[in-house]
Design goal:
The structure holds two protein chains of two kinds. Chain A is 4% helix and 32% strand. Chain A has one helix and ten strands, in the order ββββββββββα. In chain B, strands 1-6-3-2-10-22 form a six-stranded mixed sheet, with helices on one face. In chain B, helix 12 packs across helix 13. Chain B is 32% helix and 21% strand. By secondary structure, chain B is α/β, with parallel strands linked by helices. Classes of the chains: A mainly beta, B alpha/beta. At the A-B interface, strand 1, strand 2, strand 5 and helix 1 of A face helix 18 of B. The complex binds siroheme, flavin-adenine dinucleotide, iron/sulfur cluster and FE2/S2 (inorganic) cluster. The site of FE2/S2 (inorganic) cluster (FES) has 11 residues of chain A, from loops.
Chain lengths: 129, 836
């Protein structure tokens, strides 16, 4: 994952395309849409754009520190690990990302991974059905 | 080529050590080797720069004119001579022949080695925008760069006409800006991120820094993306930003980051990723070649500061000379200071927060101080200090040693003197020790004795103390002391005060609203600093609330903060369970026309909307629109004269009407006409919560006006005005506010009521609970005691509407914020196979 071998990383364009504190999306034909985040501290993260709860689009959530709050029922998801935080349980797959020479790269096999069985999370107290 | 010294005698049998790079790391490594094994190596240093070893860090004071080059030399000619080191300067190494163990320089010198040390440092990152190669575009890395900047500053000196743009608001960029400003240039800093030095500072400290730099006359542009550098006659003339802004410049400094200089190592076939890969002994993939400094990557990390480099050099020398016996280099935790006189900034470790982390924040607005410590599992993991960095080294030490701080946690934020000062970590002890006449609240001049007096007279909560003796009622910085005094005086009898806005502050919604106006606070980070927020960036509760309070208090001045808005208000549509959006155009008073219906029908077909539905608010809702299609949908609706219905906003929603006197046999007044007029006057206004209006033409009340936030029931003699109704979760029937005779009066009362609600209610409090809390009598007194009040409130509402009654759809349809609607790219497996 750390090697620079040409062909393993997919160039998705300049770093300037994403505003701090927000995310942009990358649909994958035959795969899962990916959300690429930039935090206000300047860190980039890529995750499958599906909340582990009921598949809400995480790209549209509010970003705080290194987590995002899902816009549908307010689960908080770690951008670093994809894990639901707090009392909620579930995990969204993350995609390895690197920044090089002002451009963003995603690990190609992770982008192309076959349609994942997106885990469905559970909430300690399901107030948001 | 510029070889200062002849080669020493190389006939001997000493091992040949060749160093590429005459900078901070290369020479320090040599120093460390010499200290351990003097005379063992026959040393040659090759330097690209035509000069001796100097302290790169001090280029900032050289630029600022505070130091001369001679002051920053680390090792002068004598050092090379004394240690029999051959220096080949001004002649970069161009090739490494690993087979022959030979380095070849640009001038053709071939130097054999037994051990080679690569210390090539970093290259400045040059953003590849058009014009980056114009004369007058410089980087900030070595003495030549400084000379170029000084020359540029001197060209127009005296005329006061020369301007510099610094691209990059990090450590390097700000030091360059500071230096150029001291040399008389008008400096603009253009920074891509929303806060300065975002890698070292959090939002709060970044804002304080920005404020101070602006006070000093710098222009700071954040979230600003450089599109091109403009030239005239081959020289730089200015820059243009992505949003079209143009800035004049005689000098452009690129300080947008650095890249490890790996080209030479790469071409020699050494393993490189971001930097030259080294192990804990600084050995590269070739055992005869070592590397050190900014050019290396160790355990996945690259460094851009000298402290880790010193550690690397020690490990390298231990290993190379077989001494020390240390376990090698294990990576570093780093700390940063900004070298700008009069601005004290310190940061260390990880302060991105996250699960399991706790923040301790202290803000002192009067002295411009902000301190934040991040703690996990009773260890300090990050620190940001602004304004008072005296304890920086102490915190950094605690952080590096991963010391358990549980015992001093309570007083940690107050610094070493206090935490170690025998107070046993009891924050009350220092307060108990204060003299009775000591002033605890500077803003209101309240002494400790006066606070205790107020407590003894019955003020048993912070809020009660604030309202009786005023201590901590203004900026709140002495809240801790007041809390301690309550605890000391009352023990367990301290009462919890009214609910605060959220856990980030000790102030209530009312306090915050009042103080924003009184103290003229105009930005979210400013409110947080001045009112002593105890978190660095607030939370999902206070950010949207502050955003609303500010836009309500300062219409026309305050710029909306999109990152503090929920998705619906950011995308101006309602998100649905499948991630698509619903679109509700305004239908004034529930009236529509063939043209509007046709436009809606066309949109439904054109974008394959799976459903269109009549809402409970008398208009049509188009479902299943993708975020990419929203701007085009809005453009089509705009073309037919329709604007956003704000069905998504804490804003005016709908004005429901009935047919009224125009058609209905019972109608007493033109309820439809009045409804349309009211909607046209009030749409677009943001509120504490959603706000609904209805106008019924007679007491049969077909528009359900008596369960609306503001409801009008027309009667023969005029208009009955009702307020505070709610359908929804908890149904509440309106209260009758008053009766008026004319349509104009009805309108005026409506606007005044809305403005009072906007200025007084708590964020996310609808009119029903607001009136329950304040009481109908209070409301009537507010509106009717002073005969001019209604006119003044309505005027303030109209002023706000001058700025906020804009159709957010129109801007988006014209391309604003297109990044919110467009995908980054689309990945198709075939295209993917061809991608690099
Ligand atoms: C579309 C609509 C239902 C419909 O198909 O008719 C609707 C749909 C929603 N309503 Fe409503 N309400 C709609 C009329 C109403 C009405 C009827 C009315 O306005 O006369 C009420 C009761 C009246 C009232 O507000 O007092 C109503 C009381 C609520 C409430 C409870 C509010 C309360 O104070 O108790 C919520 C929840 C909230 O706001 O927190 C809510 C929230 C919602 C939300 C926004 C739920 C959500 O957060 O996603 C729904 C999203 C709709 C969407 O995606 O477009 N909706 N909602 C109606 C849109 C009206 C419009 O043209 O703008
Ligand atoms: C203006 C400024 C202010 C700074 N302030 C601070 C600060 O306050 N605190 C801090 O910790 N750090 C600071 N730094 C960073 C610090 O200077 C660097 O971390 C440090 O200099 C890195 O040392 P190095 O030897 O790896 O690289 P350098 O010091 O850059 O040395 C590398 C040398 O190698 C030479 N070279 C490159 N390629 C070749 C070649 N092929 N042949 C021969 N020679 C070559 C280069 O010309 C250069 O002289 C600052 C940097 C700058 C520019
Ligand atoms: S009543 Fe409930 S389900 Fe129906 S639109 Fe309103 S919020 Fe959604
Ligand atoms: S889908 Fe994300 S919280 Fe429910």
């Amino acid at each position: 994952m750390n090697s620079d071998t040409v062909g393993q990383w997919l160039d998705i364009g300049p770093v300037t395309q994403i505003k701090a504190g927000s995310a942009r999306t990358l649909p994958v034909a035959g795969g899962e849409e990916i959300a690429v985040f930039l935090t206000s501290r300047g860190e980039y993260f890529a995750l499958v754009n599906k909340c582990p709860h009921k598949h809400g689009p995480l790209s549209e959530g509010m970003v705080h520190g290194d987590s995002v709050t899902c816009p549908l029922h307010n689960w908080r998801i770690s951008l670093r690990t994809g894990e639901a935080l707090g009392d909620d349980r579930g995990c969204t797959p993350t995609i390895p990302l690197k920044v090089d020479g002002g451009r963003l790269f995603l690990l190609r096999e992770a982008v192309l991974a076959p349609r994942r069985q997106a885990a469905v999370g559970e909430r300690a107290l399901d107030t948001a059905a | 080529m510029n070889a200062i010294f002849p080669f020493p005698d190389t006939s001997g049998s000493r091992e040949k050590l060749v160093v590429i790079g005459n900078g901070m790391a290369g020479c320090r490594a040599v120093e460390e080797v010499l200290a351990r094994a003097p005379g063992r190596f026959d040393i040659t240093i090759i330097g690209a720069e035509p000069r001796v070893n100097y302290n790169r860090i001090m280029l900032s004071p050289v630029l600022a004119g505070e130091k001369a080059f001679d002051d920053i030399i680390i090792n002068g000619p004598q050092w090379y001579a004394d240690n029999a080191i051959a220096l080949i300067s001004g002649d970069p190494a161009e090739r490494i022949d690993r087979e022959a163990r030979m380095v070849v320089t640009r001038s053709g010198l071939a130097l054999p080695y037994d051990t080679l040390l690569i210390a090539t440092g970093s290259d400045p990152f040059i953003i590849p925008v058009p014009g980056h190669d114009l004369a007058g575009v410089v980087t900030f890395r070595d003495l030549d760069d400084v000379d170029r900047m000084v020359a540029a500053a001197e060209v127009g000196a005296g005329e006061g006409s020369n301007a510099a743009v610094v691209i990059g608001g990090g450590l390097l960029g700000l030091e360059a800006a500071h230096g150029l400003a001291l040399r008389g240039m008008q400096v603009t800093v253009v920074h891509l991120m929303p806060t300065l030095m975002e890698r070292q500072l959090d939002e709060a400290a970044g804002w304080l820094l920005r404020q101070e730099l602006e006070r000093r006359g710098h222009t700071i542009l954040t979230s600003a993306n450089t599109k091109a550098i403009l030239g005239a006659a081959g020289r730089v003339a200015g820059i243009v930003l992505e949003d079209g802004t143009r800035i004049r410049a005689d000098l452009v400094v690129m300080a947008a980051g650095i890249k490890p200089a790996t080209a030479l190592a790469k071409s020699a076939g050494l393993a490189c990723e971001r930097g030259i890969v080294v192990d804990d002994h600084m050995q590269t993939s070739d055992p005869a070649i070592l590397a050190v400094g900014e050019c290396v990557q160790h355990r996945g990390a690259c460094y851009g500061l000298v402290a880790p480099i010193w550690e690397m050099c020690r490990a390298l020398a231990d290993h190379l000379t077989g001494s020390g016996g240390g376990g090698g280099y294990e990576g570093s935790v780093t700390s940063t200071k900004l070298k700008v006189s009069g601005i004290d900034v310190f940061s260390a470790g990880d302060f991105s927060g996250g699960e399991g982390c706790e923040d301790i924040v202290m803000r002192d607005a009067a002295h411009g101080i902000y301190k934040r410590l991040v703690i996990r599992d009773n260890r300090l993991i990050g620190a940001v200090l602004y304004g008072d960095t005296a304890d920086g080294n102490w915190y950094f030490d605690l952080l590096r040693r991963q010391e358990d701080i549980a015992a001093i946690r309570q007083s940690l934020i107050f610094g070493q003197a206090y935490a170690a000062g025998g107070a046993g970590g009891d924050p009350h002890a220092a307060v108990a020790a204060l003299a009775n006449d000591a002033e605890v609240c500077g803003c209101n001049g309240v002494s400790k004795g006066a606070v205790i007096c107020a407590i003894n007279e019955g003020a048993h909560s912070v809020a009660a103390v604030r309202s009786t003796c005023k201590a901590s009622a203004s900026c709140g910085s002495c809240t801790n002391i007041v809390e301690s005094l309550l605890a000391l005086t009352l023990g367990a009898e301290v009462e919890a005060g009214p609910k605060t806005l959220c856990g980030c502050t000790s102030f209530t919604h009312d306090d915050v609203r009042r103080l924003i106006v009184e103290r003229e606070l105009k930005l979210i980070p400013q409110v947080m600093q001045e009112l002593h927020w105890n978190t660095p960036e607030g939370c999902a509760s206070c950010r949207p609330a502050l955003n609303y309070y500010l836009l309500c208090a300062w219409p026309g001045e305050y710029e909306d903060d999109e990152t503090s808005r929920f998705v619906n208000e950011r995308l101006h549509a309602n998100i649905q369970k499948d991630g698509t959006y619903s679109v509700v155009p305004r239908m004034w008073g529930g009236i529509t026309s063939p043209r509007e219906l046709r436009a809606i029908a066309d949109v439904v077909e054109k974008y394959n909307a799976p459903m269109v539905k009549v809402t409970g608010g008398q208009r049509l809702d188009i479902f299943g629109i993708r975020k990419e299609d929203l701007p085009a949908v809005w453009a089509d609706l705009n073309a037919a004269g329709m604007v956003s219905g704000h069905a998504y906003g804490k804003a005016l929603r709908t004005v429901k009407t009935c047919v009224g006197s125009e058609w209905c046999r019972f109608g007493t007044q033109d309820s439809t006409g009045l409804g349309v007029k009211i909607e046209q006057a009030t749409w677009g206004s943001y509120m504490p919560h959603k706000f609904k209006i209805a106008v019924s033409g007679c007491p049969r009340n077909c528009a359900e006006a008596t369960i609306k936030d503001f409801g009008i029931v027309c009667v023969d003699s005029g208009y009955e005005l009702h307020v505070g109704g709610n359908g929804g979760i908890k149904v509440r029937v309106t209260d009758l506010l008053c009766k008026v005779e004319t349509e104009v009066e009805a309108m005026e009362h409506c606007l005044a009521f809305i403005q009072l609600y906007r200025e007084d209610a708590h964020y996310l409090e609808r009119t029903a609970p607001w009136i329950e809390r304040k009481g109908l009598e209070w409301l009537k007194a507010q509106l009717f005691t002073d005969p001019d009040r209604i006119g003044r409130l309505a005027a303030r509402f109209r002023l706000s509407q001058k700025y906020w009654q804009i159709d957010p759809w129109a801007g988006r349809a014209a391309g604003a914020h297109h990044d919110l609607h467009q995908h980054l790219a689309e990945v198709r497996p075939l295209a993917l196979e061809n991608a690099r």
